[in-house]
Amino acid sequence: MKINILVAEIGSTTTVVNAFADIHSDRPRFLGQGQAPTSVSEGDVNIGLQGAIEDLKKNLKIDDFSYDEMLATSSAAGGLKMTVHGLVYDMTVRAAKEAALGAGAIIHKVTGGKLRRTDLKNIMEIKPNLILIAGGVDYGERETALYNAELIADLDIDVPIIYAGNIENQDEIVEIFKGKPNKLYIVENVYPKIDQLNIEPTRSVIQEAFEEHIIHAPGMSRVRELVTGPIIPTPGAVMEASKLLQENIGDLITLDVGGATTDVHSVTEGSEEINRILISPEPLAKRTVEGDLGVYVNMRNIVERIGKEELQKQLDGDVETLIETHKPIPDTPLAIQFVEILTLEAVLTAMNRHTGKLRHLYGPTGKKTLAEGKDLTNIKWIIGTGGALSRLPKRVDILKEIALRNKGDYLLPTPEAQILIDNHYIMASLGVLSKRYPEAALNLMKQSLMIE
User: Fold this and answer.
1) Can you name the residues that pair with 286 across neighbouring β-strands?
2) Parallel, antiparallel, or unpaired: how do β-strands 2-10 and 130-133 relate?
3) What letter would DSSP give residue 387?
4) What pLDDT digit, counting tens, does each position of 377-386 carry?
5) What is the DSSP string of 219-252?
6) What is the pTM of this model?
7) How many Å apart are CA 446 and CA 440, to the nearest integer?
8) At what angle do helices 200-212 and 94-102 cross, to 10 degrees?
């Protein structure tokens, strides 16, 4: 059997392969999917990849196949670990953090101002895959970024460095890292002027650097030899798919509840009304990752948030037994009910952390209302992807609760927002596919979301 493109998603717990045909036509097709446990613990992610390919053959009922191209996304071995270092936390640091998260990174440390000895010790312990240095608007403060760059250069660790700060420092940064083992990327300032974000150039370079240095998971260098196209972080691929879709159907938010984290990707400018009272700017495309909200690895965190007594009221079986026998993929009606309750809590909590809020200030002239954070009131579509939100029976009802439970001053989507499900569970694959074939990726996405 001939397959145009095979896309591998090498995750922290599961490896998935998706097969596509007729990519060069106006009617591309999703052929099928295979999956297997990711094999990082066995010392070689290729074992899991081959297992997923075998599962794909079984699902397609074929003995063998050939393919023209292979693309990949990866979040194995902890994904893309980054540390981010800027000047003022609410300004350049925040802008750099938004760029890193939007590219699909998992941020292990963020600092503002001059690095301390303890910060440098933490960087060495984290062993990041990338380090991002920012700081200062263009033609503004220069010293902090240069000071931090000198200290990081003196660490002598072979980690790619991205500089995205004050453009006046660029030549100095090159001199600082001259002769050092680090690959250096110089990018436009993420915060060139007060209240102006410029994060897309940095996002692009982060993904480029990730692809170039994707050797941190056991066996990934061999995967790189198999892959004929891009490899990008899996969360970054979901963001790429979300941005492409937003250009076609309007403002949207994509939720991915996984075994270890819950990711929220929003693509919206927000409403004019809220933008007028916004304290600080927000990016068009924003991603947040909640590392404590996973329905398998971090299941006990969510249980604690809900409370065992409350859980027991909602369940038809014993809570303690369900906790002790919990599996990555629920396989009984009671286990499915348990995961649906966990998923709802993860969705609502992640949304409240992602979204902005109105703030009411009272002074001599009376009440003044300001907005802080991401405005989601203009969202037209709420999309569910990932294992939980593409497979659970109550996935649509879970996503409807976002608007129904909106109380207080959160800038959440309204009940008019429509629910879409990534039925084929292929958004991440289509995000990397869109790097080469955007029209085919959009067409396939609409098929999976059933909005043709």
Assistant:
1) 266
2) unpaired
3) H
4) 999 999 999 8
5) THHHHHHH--S-EEEHHHHHHHHHHHHHHHH-SE
6) 0.84
7) 10
8) 50
